[in-house]
Amino acid sequence: MIRKDIRTIEFNKIGLGYEDLFFDGEIELGSIIWIRGDEGIGKSSFLKMIAGLLSPSAGEFLLNKSSVYKMSFEEFLPYRLNIGFGFETGALLNNKTIFDNLLLPLEYHSEIARAESKARVESYLKWFDIFEFSKRRPAHVSSAVRKITGILRAHIMHPQIVLLDDVTTGLSEKHLSKLKAWIVNYKSKNPKSTTFITTQDSSFMSDVCDGELWLTRQAAA
Amino acid sequence: MTTSALIYVDQIGRRLLKIFEYTINIFIMVYLSFRATIHDNAQSFRTILNVVSSQIYFTGFQALPLISILALACGSIVIMQSTSQLSLLGGGNLVGPLLVTVILREVGPLMTALVVVARSGTAVATELGNMKANQEISALESMGINPLSYVVFPRMLGGIVSVLTLAFYFNVIALIGGFIITQFTQHMPLSYYMATLANSLTIEDFWIFMLKNTFSGAIIFTICCHQGLQVHSSPHEVPQVTTKAVVNSIIYVVSFNMIVTILFYLKKLLQMGVL
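^ Those are the sequences you sent over. The predicted structure of the assembly is below.
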């Protein structure tokens, strides 16, 4: 499967089903964007909508001027391969080890050789000092390791768009500083990449974010 | 017609419409799973084979002890009862046709299906329900892996193969093992027993065996996958969908078996000129 470059992301009067929350406008790509808003306003839903996991209750979400919700799974797949999602809880497959969880998308889509895939997974785990847990299943590691693995899985295919949901909760100071360096490093190595992050940790975001996107009850700022 | 009678008719109508809608949803899921598998260029044959083989191991291989006990019990009871009762009536040569009718056509497919529902149907519904609640299904989608081709289709395929082989195993154990057990209570020469069985088997028995067991496997695993995927986000929904999966699987499998049996005997009656 050949990936499609994502050149534009547009929201055409998007409603997320949360009373009067609407968002309208185009997002500038190539930056690290902090999605902000009150608790329960729909920040996670906003990220899921970009990943194609959730349909908006109103309006249209456009990638390269094409409406995502008119696309079938197969039509959206070339874009999807360029989008990585880090879930709040990690959402790892419980019947696979930490290593195999990271290996799965690489092996499934066979974009690179098996040896290269394994080397990439190994280097990612070593970068966060969690390689010792690689042979364990998600139920046998801490929530922090699960969360980091989920974040690494979002980056493993080197996507153009990275969506990280509630990225800082439950991580130690050591892991937070490593994560900060990881996000900045990924951006510098992939200048065309865009990372959307939701978190309540302003000290963490002040060091990494290029811009903010506020979700409000009336309209986005 | 009184108002209360109309309300009663209305309730029956609603219930029938719900059953019809549910059945259509099951067919749609089968179609979408096949479609997703055909269109999924990324999924290798090896990936499907891995899931299918583990499904066969859990559903087929691990069920062998339970199936053996049930087959021996059913086989010996039916053989004992039929030989003793038919001998009294002077119909000893009808033992073969009776065993083929009862074990091969009816009890075998039904008992196998019930064991598979109880052991594996519940496991599949729970597994998929938990995957949905833990956002594993969404995670697969986000990685560009279609859950219908990666999770559902291999389970359906593995389920069909398992039910077919388990039913075959059930029949062999019931007819051979059952015969050995009956030797403790009554004597019947093995050669006579095998000959009467062989003479009773027809090509129609093969088609009934294939039809009932293939569709039982498909019905059980499609319904259980469908119910598992009905979980929205909370783990408390998992036991609810599992119970529904078991109940619906049994209802649909029993109904399907009954329909096949009725159609078979209608055809027989037509051939005999009774209808």
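The mean pLDDT of chain B is 90. Chain B has nine helices and no strands.

Shout if you want it in another format.
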